[in-house]
Fold each of these.
Amino acid sequence: MSDIHCGKGQLVDEDLKDHIPNAERLKQLKRLREYITELPSKPDFVIVSGDITIRGQEDGFEEFRLWLLDLIASGHLPPRERIMVVPGNHDVTRQTREPQSSKKQFQLFWDHFCTTFPHSHIPDLDPRPVDNPTVDKDSVALQGGISTKEINGKIALVENLPFLLSLEHDLLIYGFNSAHGCGVPGKPDAKIIENLRSLINLAGPDERAKAALTEIEKAYLDSLVIDAGMITDDQLLYFHRHMSSLKKTLGERFERLTKIAVLHHHVSNLWSQPLELKKFEAVVDAGQLKQGLIEQSFDIVVHGHKHLNHVGLDGALIPIQRKDRYNPLCIVSGGTIAGFPRHGDRATFKVLEFPEAQGPRRAGIVRETPLRGFGNIPEAIRCESSTFNVPVNSRQPELHDFSSAKVKLDDALVEKCSNELNHPSGSTARDVELANSRDSVVSETLRYRCYAQLTTQNSSTFYEVLQVTKKLRFRDYSRLRWFVTAAEENFDPVKNNKIVINIGNFENTHFSEADAPNEIRNSISKLESYFRNAIDKGIVEVRVHNFSQDELINITRASLA
């Protein structure tokens, strides 16, 4: 759920020059409750991605808080420790940010949510985040979130870990506070303020003039307010320390997790996004955030802010020259509940489903359900929801085009492993078809085509080239068995015959699709064990070259020249 916009008064959309009265927003919240009670199953987790209220109104916070607690009590939402809440730009108290403290900025949001629900880090109000959170790698209980205790009759927050970790579901949800730079007072022009104050004094007993001038001063100061989405270096540092700690504790289990990041502001432009002229369009440090999420193998980013429904992939930041093969981020823009949907869009909430009970997962489902003001709700959920199948833990091979450089890479491998082909003492044939003597089994026209054959007066050697970017599998072993068998059938009975398999290992380059360290090398060793008898007899020789990233860059650069 995102951009709920509870609270009294009108919600004004400056772009559409329109408003939604409070009564209409309350109707939407009531309707959302009806939809949630009709869901086929209770959600395991709930994400609230900001803009709970309108321009920091306290009654909006309390209204939504009570709404959540009511649905929890009725059994339609999970317990509060499974509900992640992050603030949006409407959830700060505007023009209260002090130079060295953001306490006043977030105080109302904190008071209403942060001793009740897991949440992103709130500076100057939350306890300082721990660098190495305690996690039990053998526990299926929910970990992370908040710890509280009662002090003098009041609930005090002891610890806030801004993530929810469920090893039962192989799921990690991490909350980010992107509202640090929202509602921050700008520096006014001293001369303008001085002149306005002088006019107010000159107004004397004319209260209407004084009120009008005071409103002008207020509007001027409000026009200077900075409203920038920002994560901050401190929060990114905490995030990386938390991920390092989780990796160390969980080991390989960390890679099995489906990882979801939650924040309010969008981190990229969205498909069909309306044009807006603003000082700060997106999160100002979105590049650093996305880099961190991609490096930590996050799968999904859930956000709000734009009131625009969108589900898409974002891999534009991933550098091609890096040896790592990263996941693109799946971006899920939450739209709005009781705000202004963009032109042609609709008020919605979304349900994320993962058909695979545990990781590593390969896919998820996003169901986007519109909030209709009338009609049969179960039928609307079933028939009007849009369904998106999204990749999870999906690498981007198209960013690393192996095929365009393959000829150069084959040449480089042969130069490293079988340079005798470049300086032959006999005759060399390339792209050689090997005769098929088993035409009683398969057609004689089905022939193996090997890389090369070198023939001298006393010897005949058959060569094959295999470039390996991921673990060798059955089809790879089968192909090489076919090659060895076909080459053996073509041995010259009066010469010394040999079969050479040249293998390029790309595990330490950006072409690598390996899921674990040394898995390519181990699969090559397995291949060698299959041909052990032939290797020991000198019939087969396996020659391996481990390409480095620098070496690869030089080769691929030359292939593009």
Amino acid sequence: MERTPLTTLLIPNPLPPNLPCMDLVQGPRLEYLRLGVSLYEASIKRDWKAANAVLVEKPELVRYSITENGDTALHVAASAKGDPKLMVDFVNNLVGMMTNKDLELQNANYNTALYLAAAAGNVETVKIMMKRNRDLLTIIGAGETMLPLCAAALYGHYDAVKFIYKNSNLDDCCWTDQNRGWLFEICVDNDMFDIGLSIMEKQPEVANTGSTLQVLARKPKAFYIEKPHIISRFFILGTPKKETKALLLLREIWEDIVKKPKREINNILRGPPEPNNKQRKAWCVQVTRLQVLLSEHRQKLMVETNSILSRPLESSNQAIEIQNFITKYVEDLRNETQNIIQSVPLPVINQDNETFYGPAKELDNLISTHIVRIHEEIQDVIKRFQDDHDLNFELKMAIGDCVYNMDNESERIISNPRYSTYSSRVLFIAAEVGNVGFLIELLRQYPDLIWKVNDKNRTIFHIGVKHRHEDIYNLLYEIGSMKDMITPLKDHKGNNMLHLAGKIAKGNRLENATSGAALQMQRELVWFHEVESMVPPSYRYRNNEDGLTPYELFSKDHKDLVREGD
């Protein structure tokens, strides 16, 4: 999943870093070689005896740069690896010779010594410096893009993250919604789920976008699964007896998301648009603009008609006013629709060499039909009803019916998998890697997700069969008769579930779990016959678009494996 680039956290035109004195580096070369290089080597090795010999002669060198990058002796020692005891003794002695302002010195990359210690995971060094100057935690490093806590999280140093987080206040002015969200996501990405839970408890908005769902979807090992009878926990009986921190975090995130409107939930599950697909991105923009347009005009239609019909006018005057408004309404809607459609006027060729227009074109046709329909409906009602009460009621009913029908049709068009390049991507990321624990938690609170299909018109169960994830496939046994409506579904190539079982398992769990072609073939046959028992008999002999039945596809895909096993 794509994370927000660190460069987006840059402060425009940042001030120069708070550099140490550069006189030693920029002064006479022999003096630098005698003092600067000696102090550098001592700092790398945490050799206090050697460092002290230099500092006794010139104690001011604690605040001098000893590299061209602006690093002090403390910078060098803070980021080095070695004996922890030597490190603590060296840093304690060095910090004892420095003022609080000295500790705030930055190198050319804006990094303080504490920042480098956090990035290196040297938690004891962090503790020593923070004890002297807590403000160090709020000084942004890495070119003014990242706080020390974020640096420790980025490099996966759990102990450093835990300590710095405990001593940080994410409401300080150095923190923004952006870097809080980034910290939350990187903690989850590096399996620091307890830190993630704590951040979300204090800053619940960090999980609003749902991007962390994609991170969790890729982590099947982070979720505990108790066998057997896996799905009984997800539909009725609640949750597993043993729950990992990842599962607790997922539950917190999902409980907030599932309360949102259905369309917003779907957008979160789909994730951001696919990169490198300009045509489909343009479609997305078109569809969004058309959705906004429809929403605005729908609201205008209802508000204006209610306003007209609530006024005490003669029925003939109301009818004329309604007619005039509807005429203006349909003209405006049509003109604005055309302006949007003309932004991407050309057809595209999809991957199956089929020429078709984007979803915006279909919405355009729907709007045209809606314009004609509402105009005709209003004319018909006005002709048939003369009584004031009946006219008002019938006009409201006619307009309400038109709006309702348009809403349903627009939703059908937008949700058409033909036009979606990433439908419910989070679900299918989890299904592809076999993250059944993740899926169970989502389904437990939103069971209708079992009907979601990806761009190839495959459900999570089809994905489970294709990738040989038995736990996901076994969920079919727990959803009752609904499985009979899912197993016959065909993908974009006409393959049903048994066709997918007939495709050879390449580079997946079956192949890795067996040694030798004969054993792999045996596993493939067992898998195929298991899925065969699940698929309705009449679908076992259906042809796909290549004219192959599941049995024929199995034979074709496994012929090399049969030959290797002979």
Amino acid sequence: MPTAHKQEHKPVTKLSQKRSTSGVGHAREACALLWPQTLILFIDRQNKYKFFLYTKKARNNQRKFRSQLLLSFAMIQIEENADQNSPLLPAAAPPPRRRWAAAVDFFCILIGPASCAIVLVLVDIEGRPMARNVMAALVWVFAWWLTNAVPMPVTSMAPLFLFPLLGIESAQSVAKSYMDDIVALVLGTFILALAVEHYNIHRRLALNIALAFSPGDAMNAPLLLLGICSTTAFVSMWMHNTAATMLMMPVATGILPSSAHFELRQLSKGVVLGVVYSATIGGMSTVTGTGANLLLVGMWRSYFPLAKPIGFSTWFLFGFPMALILFLCLWTILCYFYCSRGSSEALSLHMDKTYLKRELENLGPMAWAEKMILIVFSTLVLLWMTRNLTDEVPGWGRLFKGQVGDGTVSVMMAMLLFVIPSKKKTGEKLMDWRKCERLPWNIVLLLGAGFAIADGVHLSGLTDELAKWLSFVEKTPWFIIPFIVSLVSSAITEFTSDNSTTILVVPLLIELAKAMDLHPLYLIVPGGLGSQFAFLLPTGTPSNVIALGTGRIQVMDMVKTGLPVKIAAHLALAFLMPTLGVAVFGTNEPL
């Protein structure tokens, strides 16, 4: 960072404008201020460089600038022939890269196409060339997913060229997999989630719940932990669990400041683990909560287009009780490990209800924009829940002869945010496209890749061969099958993402269910949910990495807490699937 001469005690602002005669390209603009003890915020947008410098109190001019926050602006137009890529501030030199790192990167990149070529040349699947081609494409895609040789969204686009080139599907058919009702559901839901984040509604919700779970003036550590975890689980029901973790982690850690006190450090660990695990558990309860649920629902519709689709309300009737049981188990485990007898007393010494009320007052009263977003959000949930009810009491979807889906409603309600005024500025709406720049296109591409792979595996008959690897399940008693399936799926998901596990496991379980003459949902629901039981290692889900990134927990903390949570999840699923699952999904009826 450039520093000013120590002998100067006046802000030196210089405006120089140099017009370039070449007229080629765009000029770069910079705002610079020279002053001791400055903090620079650097923004780079569209080839324009701006420096906003906020000065602290000058040591030698305290009387003059005691209550003044100096903000000075100067524009310096740099000549067009300057190096556009050179930084305007001296940056720290990147750490030297080892020579073997480039070789490792090249090797990881080479694994994908090399493995694909080996499968094409050496593998023969009982005279099924298309199945062999699909396996070759899968080997390429999964090799890059596992090694992260290429960014995951880029790898997710590989089926768009691999499937047509290998003769699996036409380019038109593959492209359709990347935009269907499930993808529309994701886009609409994430736009609403971005609106919630933009207007700070999630923080207001967390503070209100923390106050509600704090009876009396003294703080209660287990109840505060319950409030933070329940808020995270609720938020995760309506957005991706990773996004919910990113939203709630700074809110939760901000409510509970770090401290050298042992009880508070332990409670802080419980809060961090509670946020990440509650986000995972809350995502299980709804279709929109996680990509694995969306993939499972989409694959079910792709394999069985004539069967009754899994709607939002259908999944909620099974997923919410499952998530509720698991959430209570999680809270009990967290209290046992991280809420000692002295934690409430130690917490009361550092914060109380007055602190929470002050933080809530800083947010101010709810504005028109926040109220309208809550109304739109509540209406969306209501429409999701009532689109399909029962055969005796049909939902509102019957009025449109079954032509509308959950994605239809999601996009429709999201578009309202671009129409309703925010009443903050003249002509400003609740949302504009600039606020949607962080839409999760990586999730969209991953879902498209999952649907394309599912179609290719199904059409080629590859699942018939791969399902033979799980033939040992056929000898298992039917009431133990959900436990075995979820156990296998959760073991895989500790080393890869839940989405990748779902893409791999669900087609195999469908073929296995056909061989065992069982309803496919009796196997794929435990398989899809089991892929989300990534409670032990950071590799299972990005949410776990976010938790480790706080610096408040270690891997062993995840293992110690995640193992009993994982056992409770398997037992709960093994109990609910043969009981509640039969009633909700109709697994005792013919397909």
Amino acid sequence: MDGPSTISLSPLATSYTKTEGDTLRDITCSTVCHPECAYTWSKVGTTGTIRNNALLNLGQLSRQEAGSYICIATNPRSSVTQNGPTVDVKVIFGPNTALINPSNMNYTINENQPIITIVCSATCYPTCTFSWKETTPTLSSASDNHNLALSEVTREEAGTYQYGPDTAALSVISKYTVTEGDTLLNVTCSSHCWPGCSYTWRNVTNNAIMSRNRSLMFGPIDRYMTDTYRCDVANIYTPYTKTARSEFQLLAQYAPDVSIVQSTLTLTEGSTLILTCSANGYPSQYTITGFKQTVGTITIPNDNTEAAGVRDNISVRIPYNILQDTGLYTCMVHNNVKDIDGNLLQTDSTQIDVKVKPRIFLAEDRFAGPTGGQVSISIPIYSNPVFTNYGVQRYDGFNLIEDSKYKFTENDASIQTQFYGRYVTLNGRVLQMTIQNLTEVDFGEYTFWISNEIGSTSASVTLSARSIPSLPTQLNVAVLEKVPVFVWNEGFNGGYVQTFLLQTSSTSHEHLWTNRTSILETDNVYISSTGFYRVNITGLEVGHFVARLIAYNELGNADPVSFQPFEIIKISAKENINPNHVPVIGGVVGGSLGVVVVVVVIVLVFILRRKYTLNCSFNMSLSKKEDVDSNQLRNNADNAGYNAAETYEVVSTMKETPNYDVLNVGNERPDNTHLYTPLDESNSKSHIYYENVKKEDPMYTNTVLKNPVQTVF
């Protein structure tokens, strides 16, 4: 148990002076207490409590609520109490009416006889001041206090005695600013009159009467209450015509209304469009933070927008509408005034949909299918308005129509493209053509044409029989900070997912190719924003190198294509390849062994598979004869003394399916000459390159050097 400690108040003030009818903001008391304290509020001089919580909420004040208030905190377990600071509330009021004693309104006395003293009284806070005035035959002062004592009355003192109003005082300043949504405290008009004052509030603009009492009540403020208001005060004794008046201007500030005006409703490709964003609020100085174009959640960097800042309006000026101008345009403005929901930034939006002829978004323009089978060709299309006609023509001029061989279907689809450099998704359609029972005449080029009311467009695709991949193109290599970076564009995959094998060789040993990495064409990690593949290799020694790339699928491999030679000038020790670098180069150690078999000694593996089963998760004990002259291999000399049983280090590898899938085609491996080249047993040169192995040998050996990459001899 703990507390209560010293009680604090929010707000911190302990004294308030308010005019009757005004609202006193809530006062909250708090303290540190465990468990949580119970709170009460009491009024000094009264019994009992007026609130059973921490909040003193008197609201609109009356004179009866003037006094001193204390908050008391009590620990519910220990019953220890703590008194908070005393809060004094003073309420300004009166005079509402004035009383006289005696209450007679008319006296008839003899001249030169004294009249009794007449006392005027009224209730006020602060204390009232009094004065008596004679109104007939002329206005003159009779007394400057609450007593009217005429002593001996002369005929000249006969008449009517009244006073006020002299002035009308308001409880607000002459220009009173409030914010829309706030609750305005009552505006009070005060004056002094005898026998009493009458009050009338008017709207100065239209002279409409707003109230016939001292207080003018508004309630929640809205922008339409901005106007000038006047209090007129008169003496209730109507023959006494003296009046007083006072007025104030109510200024309601409000967050701006934002609107976008569109210069034309014709949103066809090539037309001009101006979007103008304006604001209307008070105060009328606006900060425009932006006029942005979005597609879904993507913001488009459209250069047609004027610069943001403090200005009256902002425009988007599009001199020539194109598809990329399609989107939701949102203007954002503020004038440092929050709206009734507490939001500073005010917005307006308009959707712009540019009408364009159909757009075809082909991710691939080459397709492949098996003879006797079927193929589906998909054409993604964006069209606004929707396309109404389409057709397909074969390379030989034959126009396809739907029948038992050709089927056409349409489906909704999400289309991805770029708007001013940002990827966006559009709602489109996919036209799919399925060709069944493929024959030789079906392989070739097909031209699709699509049209809507704006225009038409066409695109061509090529249908081929499934095959090995075509050659990669646009090969390039650059050495960046001692690391070679290889870039290329894929060729047609032949209708199957293809794999790329990257190999390097020192220019001093150009026949010794080292597998560096192999990657699937579907691995987006290696695909740059331009669609090119990009791979970097670390761990190369200083020297001159050549590199080549081999593309293969389950039907076989394409011929190697070469990069230009490159040079590694220097490499620091910390950049040597270690196991943590494996993901960067695509799994060189684990993934290259199987592919080496495919590309370099593929003939050996296929001969092996005719007699034995290849185990793709294995340990291999390899050796190298230390005294073999490396020049012996380059000079086409047989190495009859080579001993394949001398031990290298043990190398382990796990199967990577894409690297071995090329081995799984056909049963008669030697007949698949497009996959590998059988050894020419009559040519001793081929034996030297493949370490003197023969077709009939029961075992073939891949040698592995003691470093993180694999070299095939």
